[in-house]
Amino acid sequence: MTLASPRASPRRWLLRLFVLAHVGCSAQRRSPLLWEKKSAAADASAKLPSAVAAPDACPPEPSSDERVSPELRQLHFVHVPKTAGASFHRAVRHAACLLNGANQSHGCCLPDAGPEADNRYCRARCARPACAALLGCDYCECGGAPQLKYVGAGGVRSFTMLRHPTSRLISGYFYARPGPARPDRREPLEPGPDDPSPTLPYTFEEYINMPENQNVMVKMFARDVFGHKKLGSPLNTGDLNKAKKVLEKFSLVGIAEMFALSVRVLVNQLDLKDAMPSKLQAELAQLALRPTASPKHKAALIAQLKQDKALSQRLKLVNKLDEQLFMYGRWLFCEKLRYHGLGRLDSAQVCHRPVALLNGL
């Protein structure tokens, strides 16, 4: 469109000028909006993987604890490092959500809170709900301290997971990084398929000889501290007996080597067989242990332990209290299986295997 010459009639010239201005302004108003929509769609498909949430997908966060109903039925979860605790935390949180039914003021529930949704919300670094129905944890993860003050307090029911000390230590060795120089940072190793070996600042023997890495499970349930905390006095058989008595008060001591059964017993213990959808139970049961090293690196370490008998004996010696606690925890769990009529399942045969065969070697 061209402007009329000054010789054109004034009315005609003003009309054309008005039309031009209107079209230009409309285009200017619409273009940024259209570009933003296209850009947002492109970013969503190109930059956001399926496991990351867009900002508007984040769960709501309760504004204050005053919104939590006094009738809230609370659970307590103790996360022992490297025992599939992060996965079992999801199962316990779903149970807390279902246990409270219509009372949704605690920030533990999402409309589509399956395992994939959990990943999406938590990895998006959303503002995490407090999840007041699950003591010791927020929506995405649990704190390091056991907070044993909640065990048996006011009708609160406690849950935890144990794992054979050798398997737990092997997993912890590949997980602990970058080592003694930065004990405040513990990040998972994720070596690529062509990575020849993970970079660690110490050998496995050095790792197991560090006092903070020994008898982590007894330490947590006897001293009520984070499992890798350095103690002022060494653990002893008195601590082992104390830890056993604490575990006896738990509603469930799950076993990582029987993760799917642990989820099933959790559901039975809380009488949620009808409330929790079977599909969700199946999804939760498949979470189990998440690898912290490539199979090649883990296999190499296991081969070393099988050949080096002295190192294997040292590993067993420095964690003898944890091994005894694991044996006791497995007995408690197998008693729960029999109580719920699940002892005859094929997956329950771990109850009859020697504990030494569960060490991951």
Write a compact overview of the structure shown:
By secondary structure, this protein is mainly α. The chain has helices at 10-46, 85-99, 115-123, 165-175, 204-208, 216-223, 237-248, 259-269, 278-285, 295-307, 309-318, 320-339, and strands at residues 75-78, 134-135, 157-162, 252-255.
Commentary on this structure:
With 361 residues, the protein is mainly alpha-helical. A 4-stranded parallel beta sheet has the order 2-1-3-4. Helix 2 runs parallel beside helix 8, helix 6 crosses helix 7 and helix 7 runs parallel beside helix 12. The protein starts with 9 loop residues before the first helix and ends in a 22-residue tail after the last helix. The N terminus is likely disordered.
Helix and strand layout, with pairings?
Elements: H1 10-46, E1 75-78, H2 85-99, H3 115-123, E2 134-135, E3 157-162, H4 165-175, H5 204-208, H6 216-223, H7 237-248, E4 252-255, H8 259-269, H9 278-285, H10 295-307, H11 309-318, H12 320-339
